[in-house]
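FAQ: What does the model actually see?

It sees only this:
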Amino acid sequence: MRKLAFTGLGALALTLALAGGQTGAWAADTPTPQPYTRVANPDTNTVQLQIARRKFVPAPYSGPAIWLVGVMHVGEPEYYRALQRFLDAQTVVLYEGINAEAHKHRVGDSRASATNAPSPGAWHTGAKAGDSIQSTLARSLGLAFQLEAIDYERTNFLNSDLSILQIQRIMAEEGPLAARGQTGGGKTSLDTLLQIMDGSTFLGALFKIGIQFIAISPKLQAVARLTLIEAVGRLKGDLSDMQGVPPDWKQLIKVLIQARDRNLMSDVQAELKKIPRSGSIAVFYGAGHMDDLEKRLTAELHYRPAEETWLTAFSVDLRQSGISPAEAQMMRDLIKEQLDHLQPF
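And it is asked to produce this:
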């Protein structure tokens, strides 16, 4: 049952770039960040998934502001329009985008033209964006896909991420990790995840077929939205320590968050030396990275949170969708039960 819980909700969280996951080993006196995802109910019929963007300032000295801009990789068009307006106003935007090969457009290089930049977006593995599992999920939910909704061809946008090859090397250096009596390890879980994300592969195609059924009826689509809102909005804690997560996936989760965040922080520090004190850096990453990044900002750079804004990624109208209060509560209870199986010991 616990393995099923991981397969259903844990894998979904990974598919959406680890939204809501939290990892990292820190000193006991490191403040615990407030969540970057939440479920909001502006009225009795509306359920929203909201994602935070949080401003940090240096203490006690003056200097550039750093914004941690968490993002959901599927959302309503207005959500991405609001993000685009905000990001365009920042001095530098360091964005997430794993690619098949090493990036040609890296922080510290000459500011190359956007046409020479790598294809942006989480988990771009060589297939067209429209073939990806995330793009298929967005269409099935009646939503937009981040990679297709955000214009990355901006002079202030800089890719700051690891390549798939770099991640594979890190996994190899750490060695295989598998449950007792099983073979394989982190590399196997990484390959599986990449196959799922790449909708052009056989495994990815199977997932796409299942996801496409969501669009069969408006009510089924609304049920899927509500399920995703409740799961992502309420999934908290360290995913690598959860009971239902196999050892190799725990290893993969740690690498996908911590190794990439370390790389990102080196780019943040490099940009802080280049931009004026009145400038700003926006870190535009999946919401699952924000907890670890906030701890790094406060512990390593001595930045402190100053303000925050919550944006609605997408919502569902229960009455309009034909979801009764009893049905909605039953779904919440089921999701809570599944999430409880993923909680740490």
